[in-house]
Specification:
The structure holds 2 protein chains of 2 kinds. By secondary structure, chain A is an alpha/beta fold. Helices cover 32% and strands 25% of the residues of chain A. Chain A folds into 3 domains: 233 residues, P-loop containing nucleotide triphosphate hydrolases (Rossmann fold), CATH 3.40.50; 171 residues, Rossmann fold (3-Layer(aba) Sandwich), CATH 3.40.50.300; 78 residues, no CATH class. Helices cover 77% and strands 1% of the residues of chain B. The radius of gyration of chain B is 23 Å and the shape is globular. The chains are: A alpha/beta, B mainly alpha.
């Protein structure tokens, strides 16, 4: 981009960030202009998060210069960045769960009267702010009682409070519904119209196309290119990001359904998050489960696996009634559930990859001999799994916490291979994962299916379920609204059942 | 990734290295040691230097053997405490377990010895059994509270500590229990086997078993998994409640062994021993790098942690530091260890790729 005439809001010149043993950013140049949405694009570990943490004042560069409105600045703290008008929404929330929405919004800037907290003014201003943003949130609700999507909205509202001139958003739509996403996009457009510059990190191509102006692609800590968002093709972006051509992200998986493996009859969860759901999954097919966040699609699988209580209905696994069994028994019967949040439920972060991968298999031979473990067998199994999922770097003794998000997801997936499984339930298997890892995970799921396993794929990522599923159920408010198969699985068909249709 | 190494000669360490290579290498080595092993090697080195300077008798073979002999009681309790810490909890009732074991064991031994004076070893065996069962029972209560009723380990073990201590005092009226056969003390308190003090041998056996349990058995792996991420453990088919229950039961059992050894050393059953055990055992673990958040810890380091505390106490005794001041030092060391651990985690977190 040659348009160097306007002074950029923020500029990085030859910025280097060196961690012990890792060069996270290597002489990166970056410019953010007023009124633009500048997308940062790259695989996990490419340096996007490091770059925004420098701009937000969370970390300082090892070398190089950061300029705000043409003046070199020293962003030594988040507070300093805020003073200069830079406000960031990170993926890890900065909310106090025990405080209410309004208390969180004004944390550190509470309205005061005669030195005491002014609760009326707090309520008034919080209401005003949420209304202006169009977020349907109760300001007196405690943050810990909100859904993740609602917490995300609070986080975004907090960033907008100070009227920043630079707004940094790190995958803000990861847990938002489409309607909330639309609201956010409207907000972003209103902000850019006022001259705010937005730095936006996302893995979703459709969003880049929707709101992005320019895209800066990073790979291995280096700047690859800054390109125009409207004219650059998807394939070209993937090529820039990965350094290689990926013609096909979604593999073609032959549909060869055999006997019924999972059969759910009229299932209602004790929490009523699932009501009267009936579905079946056969060996050799991938069945998708789509719906909004909170539609009950995840809860359905969790109830089947024994994580949530079942009020009524039956669950059959290969003809055997397994209703209400605990996860341990389910695993023994060959039912594997892969949770959506690897940090929260999936992995023991401070332990090694090996220990994580073999964890589900420790109950039985060959890893276990009586009360004792066979470390040699563990290492052998781990080596096999590491090759199978292509973990790079292949260091299975390293703590999981020291791997990138994509690699962590691979380790999580490897867990499902540690013992014989005939029903795989993948709940959001590619959340926060780069395109290359994503493609690898899709190939992997395809291979499982071709190997004769039954696969239930739960996902909020619409293209993902659309492309991979042989059959697809759509859920809305705890009920299964529709079922599609083969060519009927289209975006229009599916989306029609995502929202209101209760009258029927 | 390799080319930038040459392209950034401006970094400070390189320049310092050119001027003073040996010093920078030492600093680098210290950093690596700190990240790998934690604060313990540094504290040990400082302690040895300080106490050697303060007392001529400190750095002698005889005294160091003494330190080991004195430390084994704490070492055994710390190994039990480690199990609780691994699962993300802790056991504040270890002092009570020691006391109750001592009182129950001594009483049982004394009454058996009184009724059948000719069979000394029967009295010793039954007394030990009774004492260890009493201590284990306290652990079982902790386990039931934490695993079945979801009481936080803090409240459960704190409450049980009060209950058990009260029972121990009530049983004895606060007076030491006499009447154990003298052989008990002379073998398990002061005896030697192949030149090694018997308590040290017991500690070696306990440590060996603890190492095998933690590193080579499924249950040991479950401790780490449950402490590291209880939800992930549950989803991986681990019986998390049973694991938690066994943690506290085993902690009680191991601590009870220490209770009997101390009873043998004192040659009386006492309700007032073990009061400092909760703090000292947690300190030994934390100084040895066991994480208070659960999921991280090694048997070898906990042993070193216990040895270190024994070393400091011994050193302070030789340097004639008042015992009241000694508890001040111990408390400060515990806090220092936690601060150092957090510093270390911050540096490690910064190295993520």
């Amino acid at each position: 981009m040659g348009s160097a005439t306007p002074t950029p809001l923020v500029e990085c010149r030859q910025v280097i960030k060196q961690y012990p043993g890792v060069l996270a950013l290597d002489r990166v140049n970056f410019q953010l202009l007023a009124g633009e949405v500048h997308v940062l694009f790259g695989e996990n570990g490419a340096g996007k998060s490091t770059l925004i943490s420098l701009l937000a004042g969370a970390q300082e560069p090892t070398a190089g210069e950061i300029l705000v409105r043409g003046r070199p600045v020293h962003l030594h703290s988040v507070h300093r960045a805020r003073e200069l008008g830079i406000s960031a929404v990170f993926q890890d929330f900065s909310l106090v769960p025990q405080l209410t929405v309004e208390q969180n919004l004004f944390l550190g800037a509470e309205p005061r009267r005669h030195g005491f907290l002014d609760r009326k003014a707090l309520r008034r201003e919080a209401k005003h702010m949420l209304d202006r943003l169009g977020f349907a949130l109760d300001p007196s609700e405690r943050v810990q009682h909100l859904t993740r999507a609602q917490q995300q909205m609070v986080e975004i509202a907090k960033a907008f409070r100070t009227q920043p001139s630079v707004l940094i958003l790190d995958e803000p739509t990861a847990s938002l519904t489409e309607r909330e996403t639309e609201q956010l996009f409207a907000l972003i457009q209103a902000a850019t119209a006022r001259g705010v510059g937005v730095i936006y990190i996302t893995h979703r191509m459709s969003e880049i196309r929707r709101i992005g102006h320019r895209i800066t692609v990073l790979r291995d800590g280096r700047l690859i290119d800054t390109v125009d968002a409207k004219t650059t093709s998807e394939d070209r972006l993937v090529e820039l990001m990965t350094g290689r051509v990926i013609s096909e992200i979604y593999p073609t998986i032959p549909h060869a359904p055999r006997e019924i493996i999972l059969k759910v009859e009229n299932l209602t969860a004790a929490s009523l998050s699932v009501r009267g759901a009936t579905l079946e999954v056969r060996a050799g097919e991938i069945v998708g489960l789509a719906g909004l966040v909170g539609s009950g699609k995840s809860e359905l699988a969790r109830a089947c696996f024994g994580l949530d209580r079942i009020a009524s209905g039956r669950v059959w696994l290969a003809g055997e009634d397994v209703t209400g069994l605990v996860p341990r028994s389910m695993l023994q019967k060959g039912f594997f559930y892969l949770p959506p949040d690897r940090r929260e439920e999936g992995l023991v972060m401070m332990r090694s990859c090996r220990e994580n991968m073999v964890l589900p298999a420790l109950q039985q031979k060959p890893l276990r001999k009586g009360a004792f473990l066979s470390i040699a067998q563990e290492q052998e199994l781990t080596a096999r799994l590491t090759r199978r999922i292509n973990l790079q770097p292949a260091k299975p003794e390293r703590d999981v916490a020291h791997f990138s998000g994509g690699n962590q997801q691979k380790v999580l997936i490897a867990k499902s291979l540690s013992r014989p499984v005939r029903l795989f339930v993948f709940d959001e298997p590619t959340v926060g994962v780069d395109v290359a890892t994503r493609a690898a995970i899709y190939r992997f799921i395809g291979e499982l299916c071709e190997g004769g396993a039954a696969v239930l794929l739960i996902s909020s990522d619409l293209p993902e379920v659309l492309h991979l599923s042989h059959r697809l159920y759509v859920m809305y408010r705890g009920r299964i609204q529709a079922e599609f198969a083969g060519a009927d699985i289209t975006e229009q068909n599916v989306l029609r059942h995502f929202f209101e249709r209760e009258a029927a | 990734m390799s080319q930038p190494a040459g392209s950034e000669p401006q970094t400070a360490p390189d320049q310092a290295g050119a001027r003073e290579p040996s010093r920078s290498r030492a600093v680098h080595l210290a950093q690596v040691l700190f990240l790998r092993l934690g604060v313990l090697p540094f504290l040990l080195a400082i302690a040895v230097v300080v106490f050697t300077a303060m007392s001529d008798n400190f750095l002698t073979a005889e005294n160091l053997v003494n330190v080991v002999r004195q430390s084994v009681y704490l070492m055994i309790v710390a190994l039990g405490q480690m199990l609780a810490l691994l699962t993300g909890g802790f056991d504040l009732s270890v002092g009570t377990i020691v006391a109750l074991t001592s009182v129950v064991g001594a009483s049982a031994m004394a009454s058996v010895a009184a009724s059948v004076p000719e069979s000394v070893w029967l009295a010793i065996a039954l007394g030990c059994l009774a004492g260890i069962m009493a201590g284990t029972l306290v652990g079982v209560c902790n386990g039931i509270g934490v695993a079945v009723f979801n009481v936080s380990p803090f409240i459960m073990t704190l409450g049980i500590a009060s209950v058990g201590f009260g029972i121990a005092l009530y049983m004895t009226g606060g007076v030491p229990v006499y009447g154990m056969p003298p052989e008990f003390g002379s073998v398990f308190g002061f005896g030697r086997f192949a030149g090694v003090p018997v308590p040290v041998l017991v500690a070696v056996v306990v440590a060996g078993l603890a190492w095998v349990l933690v590193n080579r058995t499924a249950l040991g792996r479950y401790f780490y998994a449950v402490g590291g991420n209880v939800k992930a453990a549950h989803l991986s088919g681990i019986n998390t409640r049973l694991t938690l229950f066994l943690t506290y039961a085993l902690c009680g059992f191991v601590t009870a062994i220490c209770g009997m050894l101390l009873t043998a050393r004192l040659e009386t059953g006492e309700a007032n021993i073990g009061a400092s055990m909760p703090l000292e055992s947690i300190a030994a673990c934390v100084i040895g790098g066991v994480s208070l958040r659960g999921g991280v810890g090694r048997v070898g380091n906990v042993i070193l942690g216990a040895l270190f505390i024994g070393l400091v106490q011994n050193g302070m005794n030789l340097a004639q530091i008042e015992s009241y001041l000694q508890t001040v030092v111990l408390g400060l060391l515990l806090i220092l260890a936690v601060i150092a651990d957090q510093l270390r985690l911050r540096v490690i977190a910064g190295m993520k790729d």
